[in-house]
Design a protein that fits this description.
- The chain is of the alpha+beta class.
- Helix content is 17%, strand content 32%.
- The protein has nine helices and 36 strands.
- Helix 4 crosses helix 9.
- It is globular, with a radius of gyration of 28 Å.
């Protein structure tokens, strides 16, 4: 009996092995990460559902009472096209044995750009406490993980991100602008909103444009030899070692923090490891604590006693990290910061908090830190002798890794918030933004794909006299695109920024102004969606007469006196000017300019007191009449 029982078991095991190895079992259908629970599908358009399987594998997609059949091609790729769907849900989608639950059909928005697009909503809960009790399951959010690949397009996005709804238990996974836009759109349309956020703090616009569409910018095209040489040279000597608690750092040099590397005599472009010992009292032994590391330039990874506690990939966000229980120990402790900056200005920003806060004590981290250089690009040379530190970075890396892989996911339009990293290059920004819009419309095969653009807000200190401004140059380029490229709109925001924070918290006002553009472009409402836009100037004696389009119900001053107009004569020197509204014109004069040649309005980094609006309350866009 024992022998028969053993033979039977062996036979069953062999059968099971054969089944596991058979094509029918091995050929499991795989879906892109976007096609998952809680997703929102775009209404009223044909929909692509795609994925991978073994070559020849039969695939059936079931959705909303219908089914669609196909099979994987020789490369293991498959796709089906669903007919246009009406807004609604939740629905169940089945792809062979896979089930995707809680699917909505509504409007999907591709949100892209840099850090103001990606500001986490957790930063806004004090200003907008309603976030903590958010209860909207009809809005959804998906954040595309970072994938920067300069040497070719990717078929799949990175990571394992998931869709989140707008209920309180999930809302802190959202980005701020996407949340307020989704709330605004849903409140007005009652249509489910899906916010597909593909953005990266600190990114320049050229990173989001394909190589094909950057041909007019040769410096942004990929130099494969230079990139290969740079990648080989980018070896961090401290990687995986210098964060250790018991590292012998007795031969490391010292610097004073907060401050910059350069202020401490350290002229490095690359990676610097920084360590500091600190004492922990008995009362904090093994206890949870909060770590405040101010703001660092640019990208940091932070370790406490050899344990990783936090990372931020770009300069501006505050570094507020948690130190889990069990890491701190009574007596000697070590904090290590791996700081990467590809310009010489790396370091810890002054007048920010650098401390560990526990329930029983607070520990300052200011003062003397030890440091060692892990990697520096200065002096590195590729074959042929080019200095790689001075080599312009090619574009397209974020397009390749974060836009191209989502091209099959249908969207209603795009919300673009970017420009800070291109400040000072306004002369080319309009061409780059036009190239991006053309590029993405071709990729999504939608020639009329709406683009809602955010004009840069006010930032930095005010100046007593009129000055040149890199931020004003970007605003001008953004306005030019909105005026010349069809199916675009512009939200003017120079009154909602913060002079000392490049990431202003009032994302709600920005979202409301963006949605005005959507109401006009996407939903066909006949509304005033823009503030006054400069049309032309005529000079009569010592007066400049300015006319506008988009005056709506008429021009108006937000306050008692119009501000932030400047005038210049032939000497090109600008002085503050007086301005008054006469009908739908503005008359500008200046006691210092007898023969006007040029007028500027809100031409500054921070023109928050500029106050020309239309009667609908929308700000006039900054302008200049000159091309100096």
């Amino acid at each position: 009996m024992k022998r028969k029982s053993l033979d039977r078991r062996i036979g069953l095991l062999c059968l099971l092995a054969l089944l596991l190895l058979s094509p029918a079992v091995m050929a499991k259908v795989r879906l892109p990460r976007l096609v998952s629970d809680k997703m929102v599908l775009q209404r009223d358009v044909e929909l692509n559902i795609w994925g991978w399987a073994s070559a020849g594998e039969k695939v059936t997609v079931r959705f909303n009472g219908a089914y669609y059949e196909t099979e994987a091609n020789a490369n293991g790729e498959w796709s089906v096209t669903l007919p246009p769907q009406k807004a609604g849900g939740p629905y169940l989608m089945e792809v062979n044995e896979l089930k995707i639950r809680d699917v909505l059909v509504g409007d999907v928005w591709l949100c892209s750009g840099q850090s103001n697009q990606e500001t986490p909503i957790v930063r806004l809960v004090d200003k907008f406490p309603e976030i903590n009790v958010s209860n909207n399951h009809m809005i959804r959010h998906y954040k595309v993980p970072t994938q920067d690949v300069v040497n070719g397009v990717q078929q799949e996005i990175a990571g394992n991100a998931v869709w989140h709804s707008g209920v309180a238990s999930e809302v802190l996974n959202w980005t701020a602008l996407a949340y307020f836009y989704a709330q605004e759109a849903y409140a007005k349309t009652k249509v489910p909103q899906g916010m597909l956020v593909s953005s990266l703090g600190g990114s320049a616009i050229e990173s989001w444009v394909s190589q094909e569409h950057l041909k007019d910018f040769p410096r942004l095209l990929l130099d494969k030899d230079a990139v290969e040489a740079m990648n080989k040279a980018r070896i961090d000597k401290g990687a995986g070692r210098w964060q250790a608690y018991d590292l012998d750092d007795s031969d490391w040099k010292t610097m004073q923090m907060p401050g910059t590397w350069r202020e401490n005599g350290v002229n490095v472009q690359g990676v610097v490891w920084m360590r500091k010992e600190f004492q922990v009292p008995e009362a904090m032994d093994g206890r949870h604590a909060r770590l405040y590391m101010g703001t660092m330039v640019d990208s940091d990874s932070v370790f406490v006693n050899g344990t990783f506690v936090g990372h931020t990939g770009y300069q501006y966000p505050p570094r507020n990290y948690q130190i889990p229980a069990g890491i701190l120990r009574a007596g000697r402790n070590v904090i290590t910061v791996r700081l990467t900056c590809n310009a010489p200005g790396g370091g810890f920003v002054k007048d920010k908090p650098y401390r560990i806060v526990g329930d029983a004590a607070e520990i300052s981290l200011e003062g003397t830190w030890k440091y060692n250089v892990g990697m520096s690009v200065q002096g590195m040379r590729q074959p042929g002798g080019r200095n790689m530190a001075a080599h312009n970075n090619p574009g397209s890396g974020l397009y390749n890794g974060m836009i191209y892989p989502i091209r099959n996911y249908k969207v209603s339009g795009c919300i673009w918030y970017q420009g800070e990293s291109n400040s000072g290059r306004g002369h080319e920004y309009d061409e780059l933004l036009t190239a991006l819009i053309t590029n993405w419309r071709e990729l999504w095969q939608d020639a009329d794909m709406p683009f809602l653009l955010v004009q840069l807000p006010n930032f930095m200190e005010k100046h007593a006299q009129p000055t040149e401004s890199g931020w004003a140059g970007i605003r001008e380029a953004q306005l030019k695109v909105a005026k010349t490229v069809p199916y675009t709109s512009l939200a003017t925001t120079y009154d909602v920024g913060e002079w000392n924070d490049i990431h202003p918290l009032d994302k709600k006002s920005v979202a409301q102004r963006l949605f005005l553009g959507a109401r006009k472009l996407v939903y066909g409402e006949k509304i005033q969606a823009s503030g006054p836009i400069y049309k032309e100037m005529k000079v009569e004696g010592n007066k400049a007469i300015i006319t506008f389009t988009e005056v709506g119900g008429g021009l108006k001053c937000k306050g008692k006196v119009l501000k932030h107009f400047a005038m210049a004569g032939a000497d090109k020197k600008f002085y503050w000017a007086d301005a008054v509204i006469r009908g739908n014109k503005v008359i500008v004069t200046c006691k210092d300019v007898a023969e006007p040649v040029a007028v500027r309005y809100a031409w500054a980094d921070n023109p928050d007191d500029a106050n020309l609006i239309n009667k609908e309350g929308l700000l006039a866009s900054p302008f200049r009449t000159d091309e100096w």
